[in-house]
Amino acid sequence: MSDKKLEDRNIRKITRIGNISYGITIPIEVIRQFGWKERQKVILKIDSKNKIIVVRDWKP
């Protein structure tokens, strides 16, 4: 595990991917906890007013 403090591990940078997309990495601990896999479909719920993005599994 990382030597970073717990609160610092949840600070992420936005990275440019190609010409029209951006990405944010998700810690492996979270991926494992949710049972998600590489290339799994997820849904983004965007709250523009409060600047919040919620990521959830595509299938309920």
Automatic annotation (TrEMBL):
One of its GO terms (molecular function) is DNA binding. InterPro entries: SpoVT-AbrB_dom, SpoVT-AbrB_sf. It comes from the Bacteria. Residues 21-55 form the SpoVT-AbrB domain. SUPFAM superfamilies: AbrB/MazE/MraZ-like (SSF89447). This is SpoVT-AbrB domain-containing protein. It comes from candidate division WWE3 bacterium CG08_land_8_20_14_0_20_41_15.
